[in-house]
Amino acid sequence: MEERKDIETIMLTERQIHNRVVQIGHEISKKYKGKDLLLVGILKGAFVFFSDLVRSIDIPMAVDFMAVSSYGNETESSGIVRIMKDLDDPIEGKDVLIIEDILDTGHTLNYLLKVLNARKPASIKLCVLLDKFERREVMDIVPDFTGFKIENEFVVGYGLDYGEKYRNLPYVGVLKPSIYED
Ligand code: IMP
Ligand code: MG
């Protein structure tokens, strides 16, 4: 693939990701047995993780999506979040599990949790594929399910982008700094 040349190293291979996603799917299935589970995918970054994850969950569940954009430049979010697409249905009384690609400063999820909590779900928990824990600014955001804790590097692939590119790479790779530093 043409975009491969922009990748410095492969951080997580397809197989590593697959194995971990299957494990998380089993954890979720156990934890939410008998509950009214609603998986909320955060677009666009979580779409690949989301679609793999739902196929590893073997209890009844529903899906919905939200699209948010955080103001900022392409590698740093500002903490000011705008809802571009809201959920289709009310979440009152539901057990909501938010599915996000990456937890970085925590501003995006902090804002989302506030918005969704105000709608009175029965519970609300967080599942992230990647956790860049060293970058956390909102300290009380702690994911309930985490795929991988990673070092502070800008990564793309498996849904994650830089300038809308690289989402289709099947692995998570570190982007060459020369791509965004000029
Ligand atoms: P936060 O608000 O700083 O936690 O930012 C979270 C959002 O920033 C994610 O949903 C991503 O869209 C984006 N982001 C943060 N780090 C990366 C990265 O390494 N690669 C691609 N997107 C990232
Ligand atoms: Mg992005």
Sum up the overall morphology in one term. Answer: globular
- The proportion of residues in beta strands is 25-35%
CATH-defined topology: Rossmann fold
The SSE order reads: EHEHEEEHEEEEH
Describe the structure.
- By secondary structure, this protein is α/β, with parallel strands linked by helices.
- It has a single domain (14-150), classed as Rossmann fold (3-Layer(aba) Sandwich).
- It contains 4 helices and 9 strands; from the N terminus they run βαβαβββαββββα.
- Strands 4-3-2-5-6-7 form a 6-stranded mixed β-sheet, sandwiched between helices. A 3-stranded antiparallel β-sheet has the order 1-9-8.
- α1 (14-31) crosses α2 (47-54).
- The chain starts with 6 loop residues before the first strand and ends with a helix.
- The model has no long low-confidence stretch (mean pLDDT 94).
Short description:
Helices cover 23% and strands 31% of the residues. It is α/β, with parallel strands linked by helices and 182 residues long.
How would the blueprint of this fold be written?
Elements: E1 7-12, H1 14-31, E2 37-43, H2 47-54, E3 62-70, E4 81-85, E5 95-103, H3 107-117, E6 123-131, E7 145-149, E8 155-156, E9 172-175, H4 177-180
Parallel strand pairs: 2-3, 2-5, 5-6, 6-7
Antiparallel strand pairs: 1-9, 3-4, 8-9
Bound molecules: inosinic acid (IMP) and magnesium ion (MG).
Structural descriptors:
182 residues, alpha/beta, Rossmann fold, six-stranded mixed beta sheet, three-stranded antiparallel beta sheet, 4 helices, 9 strands, 23% helix, 31% strand, binds inosinic acid, binds magnesium ion
